[in-house]
Amino acid sequence: MSLIRTAGKLVFATADRFWPNPTGPRILIYHQVEAGLGRQMEVTLSDFERQMDWLATNRRVVDLDTALAEWAGPESDRFVVLTFDVGYLDVYSRAYPILTEHGFPFLLYLATESIETGRTLGPVPGAEPLSWDHVGDMLRGGLVSVGAHTHTHLDLREATRAETEDEISNSNELIHSRLGVSPAHFAYPWGYWSEPADHVVREHYRSAVLTGTPRPAIRPDPYLIHRYPVQLSDSFRFFRARLEGGLRVEESLRRRISGYTGP
After folding, report:
1. Which ranges in the chain belong to alpha helices (H)?
2. How far apart are CA 104 and CA 55, in angstroms?
3. Bridge partners for 129 per DSSP
4. Beta pairing partners, 81
5. Beta carbons of 194 and 230 less than 8 angstroms apart
6. What SS3 class is residue 187?
């Protein structure tokens, strides 16, 4: 399977050369670091270290607010925003020391139910959640910003407006009561936009992010921002391809297989 994935990524990276490059900052999605679960949503510790070392030399890592404010600037293609979804323990234990060493700002999009209850974020060990104390410690370090990712990580395409309101209000209230901050940015669970949820999200946040490589645009709608998922099979070899072209064919196939037809 790994050989098939590698061959596929070689094809996808080659195909990117025939498309116009995306414009503006590159917003990366991470989930777990060295979880040992073999899921595409994690990266190994050694790959993460190499990726961060490369960014330190070759790109400018900025927070999301800076990226949004300077999106149309002449150097914005070199900006990279680091985001971590859901709130896994290994973000604190493995990623955070490396991010601190480099002084990189990053954004945590928290799904608050698991952090509040301590229940694992997956069916097997290795998907344990952060605690509020962990998040508070990172906040005191001055590098992290906290965004919202709903309360239970519900796919909002399947939610009523009332359910969406509950997911968002519960998440916002817990983040504020436990951390003393109000989240300004939102990430759609699974990266899937929902038209009914869009109206609610715009009432509560300054931005919202999806998954998938964007079309070239001078300045995107701040509530329809695409991010580049960094995957286990990217390793370090395809990390630059992910940053430069986004492996767009791969992302298009992933969307088609999942049945997603949104922006």
Report:
1. 2-16, 45-58, 64-69, 89-90, 96-102, 112-117, 132-141, 161-179, 195-204, 239-244, 248-258
2. 10
3. 88
4. 27
5. no
6. strand
The architecture in CATH of the region 2-258 reads Alpha-Beta Barrel (3.20)
Cβ-based burial of 56 (10 A; exposed 0-12, middle 13-18, buried ≥19):
middle
Cβ neighbours of residue 241 closer than 8 Å, sequence gap 6 or more: 9, 12, 13, 16, 234, 247
Name residue, tokens 């301590």: 118
Torsion of CA 120, 172, 228, 154, to 10 degrees: 50
SS (H, E, C) 79-123: EEEEEEEECEHHHHHHHHHHHHHHCCCEEEEECHHHHHHCCCCCC
234-258 pLDDT tens trace: 888 889 888 887 666 677 767 777 7
Whether the model clears a pTM of 0.70, i.e. scores above it, the answer is yes
3, HSE (Cβ side, Cα atoms, 13 Å): 0
SS3 20: coil
Average pLDDT over residues 98-111: 98
- CB-CB contact of 149 with 110 (8 Å): yes
* The token pair that represents 222 in the structure block: 């701040």
Give the SS3 label for residue 146.
Answer: strand
Give the tens place of pLDDT for each residue, 3-48.
Answer: 666 666 665 556 667 666 777 899 999 999 998 888 888 999 999 9
Q: Which residues touch 141 (CB under 8 Å, ≥6 apart)?
A: 96, 100
